[in-house]
Design goal:
The radius of gyration is 26 Å and the shape is elongated. It contains 18 helices and eleven strands. The protein has 374 residues and is an alpha+beta fold. The chain folds into three domains: 117 residues, Beta Polymerase, domain 2, CATH 3.30.460.10; 88 residues, Hydrophobic Seed Protein (Orthogonal Bundle), CATH 1.10.110; 155 residues, no CATH class. Helix 8 runs antiparallel to helix 10 and helix 17 packs across helix 18.
Length: 374
């Protein structure tokens, strides 16, 4: 049997990028041969094995036949007769369809190296249309490789547009859509992902709420760029993008995409707090206003989330050039006020004869006084 390093590891090595993980294809083997050599089965739908020492994935060379709609409608065929070129042909992009032999030789049957040099994201073959997840992957690669000047080839963009028109995107399950979007949010230029999806029409199907943000006059790209400049995590980038939609629309989109709870909660909080900011109704010099902000944000119980919200606030202020919120003095005031109020603790002598709501009112008054002092 022959073993080849394939896919992203070869691509990133040629680009001079760090290789995060390595995948291997095995040609000329059977499941029995793999297991006799100590490889442990790991795949449910097709034969993937874990190396006994490195635990890296080794997949038997395989073919895929389209037998139904969506990305699950495939029948996998594998045998020792499947060649490396046949296996590589079923991959999405030419830059992901290269292999490295054990002797170091580069195997590139579909022009991946040429497309790397031309900074092109181009599909390998017409088989691309069989899997709508590839639309999401192209958009994600566009976001990741945008700083290197990569762009989607015209013929690939046309193919993606055709797939959307034929309804292939409608078959995508929400979990898979979010998985790709979350990875794109962590990329160098996440706005490119949404722009590519918008260009081919997929954004209208997958997340129509975001269309205004990526229209010609939209500020989606500026919002994401501002969050990236802060080195903010993906949850903050997502919340910065959604905050202007309003709390109801932000929550509906998060539920629709089945985002993790921390993404949904931060986005909804940011949307809820964005309205007074947009209306210019911020009065941070007023201790009562600050305390109401902390209570609305549940900052006393969720201080870590409040810190993430401050990043959302900063990103949106920079993107929309709001001088008051861009100032570090304001953020310091928000931080110091919260620290002072959080340090308030009720002792027995603070509660003479108090019961029920009266205790909460006493705590509120003490927190208000503590904020006023700083």
């Amino acid at each position: 049997m022959q073993v080849y390093l394939v896919g992203g590891a070869v691509r990133d090595e040629l680009l001079g990028l760090p290789v995060r993980e390595r995948d291997w294809v095995v040609v000329g083997a059977t499941p029995e041969i793999m297991e006799r050599q100590g490889y442990r089965p790991a795949g449910r739908d097709f034969p993937v094995y874990l190396h006994p020492q490195t635990h890296e994935e080794y997949a038997l060379a395989r073919l895929e036949r389209k037998v139904g709609p969506g990305y699950r409608g495939f029948r996998t065929e594998f045998s020792p007769a499947v060649t490396l070129a046949e296996d590589l042909r079923r991959r999405d992009l030419t830059i992901n369809a290269m292999a490295r032999a054990a002797d170091g030789r580069l195997i590139d049957p579909y022009g991946g190296q040429t497309d790397l040099q031309a900074r092109l994201l181009r599909h390998v073959s017409e088989a691309f249309v069989e899997d709508p997840v590839r639309i999401l992957r192209v958009a994600r690669f566009a976001a990741r490789l945008a700083p290197l000047g990569f762009h989607v080839a015209a013929e690939t963009r046309a193919l993606m547009t055709r797939m959307v028109a034929q309804g292939e995107v409608n078959a995508l399950v929400r979990e898979r859509v979010w998985k790709e979007l979350e990875r794109a949010l962590g990329a160098a230029e996440p706005a490119r992902c949404f722009a590519v999806l918008n260009e081919c029409g997929a954004l209208r199907v997958l997340a129509p709420q975001l269309l205004p943000l990526f229209a010609p006059a939209g500020d989606g790209a500026r919002l994401l760029a501002a969050a990236v400049a802060l080195a903010a995590p993906p949850a903050v980038r997502w919340a910065a993008l959604l905050a202007g939609l309003g709390a109801t629309a932000a929550e509906e989109l998060c539920v629709q995409l089945q985002t993790p709870v921390e993404f949904r909660e931060l986005a909804v909080l940011a949307a809820r707090l964005d309205s007074p900011l947009a209306a210019g109704a911020w009065t941070p010099a007023d201790p009562a206003w600050l305390l109401s902000l902390y209570e609305l944000a549940d900052a006393f119980r969720r201080p870590d989330r409040f810190q993430l919200w401050l990043q959302v606030l900063t990103a949106r202020a920079h993107a929309r050039d709001i001088p008051l919120v861009r100032s570090s003095a304001l953020r310091e005031r928000l931080q110091s006020g919260l620290a002072a109020a959080s340090a308030v603790h009720l002792s027995p002598q603070d509660l003479p004869g108090l019961r029920g709501p009266a205790i909460g009112a006493r705590l509120h008054a003490l927190r208000l006084a503590a904020i006023g002092q700083v």
